User: Fold this.
Amino acid sequence: MLTTEDFTRFPVQMWDKVLSKVKKAVVFMDDKCAEALHWCGGAALLLEAGARNVKEFSSFEACGVNEPKAVFVVSTLLKGRTVDIIKDIISLSHFQYCVVFTTVAHSVHLLANNVTTDMEGSPVFEQFEEKLCEWMGNMNYTAEVMHAPVVFAPVSQQLLVTPTFAHLFPLLSPDLEAINVKRPEKKRFGSLADIDMHSLPTELQFEIKSLASALNSVFEATGTREESFAVGPMSRIIAGELANHPQAKNRRKTAPNKASIIFVDRTMDLTGAVGHHGDNLVEKILTVLKPLPGHVTDVQVDMLELTSLQRTPHSQTTLAPGCLAQSQSPAAQSLWEAMLTSKHKEGVMEVRRQIVEAASKEKLPIKMSMGRVTPEQLCSYMQLFRSSWGALESHCGVLQLGLATAQALRHPGLPRWDACLAFERLLLQALGDSDFPAVLRQLLPLMKPRGGEDSTASGSRSREDECGPDELILLLVYLYSLADEAQPADQDTEEEELEKLERELMGALTLVITREAELSPLLQKLTGCAKPEELTTERAHSAVEAMFETLRGLSHTRDHLKQLRSVYTASDGVHQATYRPFLRQILEEVFHPDRVECPDIEHMSGGLTDLLKTGFSMFMKVTRPHPSDNPLLFLFLVGGVTPSELRLIKEMVMTHKPGTQVLVLSTRLLRPTDIPELLFTTQRLLPDIGV
Assistant:
């Protein structure tokens, strides 16, 4: 029987095709493929397979006369900018042998070249091989072009992410308006749930088809027949595309293994993604430490404390950063799994335990102290390893995770996490007692420029934990995603009051943003300005106005559902109001002992068979497929999954159905600030696929 381990090994196996071609070659790789490789073993895999060098996929790179072979690994269609970069690199080099790997299947290349019929062989790739020989300057030189689905990154035993599709996100109300503008009035869609694949822009269609093809390759390699289910409009489209994939139909007839896959739109539960209730160490590390350049998931870990270097303004550029991906060390991998799926306190305790164990093994003079784990204590233990290069090398993975923990715990931005959590709890209680404008008004006192006289005059917030613009935007998303849970009021009065209040909030938030001494990555993307000097009040205000247009639609993302319409449980006088995770509700339905059919978890694999069953079910009992039918369950979260949701899934499986193998797939591992970026700054309808 297949296990989740067979699937977490799949991403590494897919790199074998690339590794077989890299001997004596210089490898050029784009950021998305580099991130997938990073979690599979990193550049070391290429170098061990005989690669001479690994370079960025950029027009500014080239090779010398003594480097005749190149391998390109790209995550895009072989069109447009991608082709230009390959041509630039070849033109500046002296290659006689070029191999190009693309993660986009040949079938999608045919569609991108307006070929709708199936063709024998790979004509698009063959034509590109001829172009490569032309650019190399000799048609007798060797060129190969092929598809390699190196899109998955095994972040943990429980999670595969897809860096290539990190910015794929379910559509929102402004996207519906943009689609409708281009359609005749009588053919416009009433809601996001009505949108079909063919009404999407071609770039987004190509991206969805590429994702379906990548998923098909996973099931093909493992001999799996999947039953697909979907919750949410984008998930329906992706699941439908997988169900109708030409190769998938043939595979399902002969595949010996069975699995269920449930696609879930992130927009079904934005409250959980931006909230700070996740009692998880990794969530905090991802939030406060800087991302690795070019990466979506991993972060930079400052390694200075493991050296004898003095901290200077230039020390960060002297020393390469550490990271969270530790695929070479079993001890570090087990520690990472514990940090990812445990509560914060348990994760920190496990970090200390493993560092102490490593120090004891190396006979380092460690002084044990019980009680609360502090960042100073962790650092004092890790500094002992500086005296022994062998010990440092043996336990480098565990030490990097230890340093990440210590740096997150003492980060000046961490107190704001607790401040946000406290305010979210207040807002949850207020939703059950007041109408939405009254609850929203509670954010106004927080909308003060940081460090100003009026921001500390009330004494309610210290400088350290006062909310900056990023936190204020997160609180707005949190509240608007729960707007329908507030007490009803007179509709006309409420709309008028809400409009007036929103204008006040926009003005206040604009002031907060323009008074920032330094723009955070989120604010840079939101305003399109890299420095505060570039930012005008008008530019900030128009960015905030556009943001509020999107915010207004967030409370309607579950309107099309029949049963799972709420993520909020109001106070009953004894218990406080609580947030009820959408994933918890889905898994309760899936693992229900009576195998109850949930109308919101839509079966997508049936085709004609399912339609016949629907017809027969009007006059006889028909058994439909259920997600719990199979021993293996995949949850694909379109738009990202949080570390605390991974813990929730693990706990739900252990409680309700311990024997079930569950693997989470997702477009990315989320930090709270990722959601505003995906909501307000991502071109959801026009993904970057290299065209």
Notes: The chain is about 45% helix and 10% strand. Residues 455-462 have pLDDT under 50 and may be disordered.
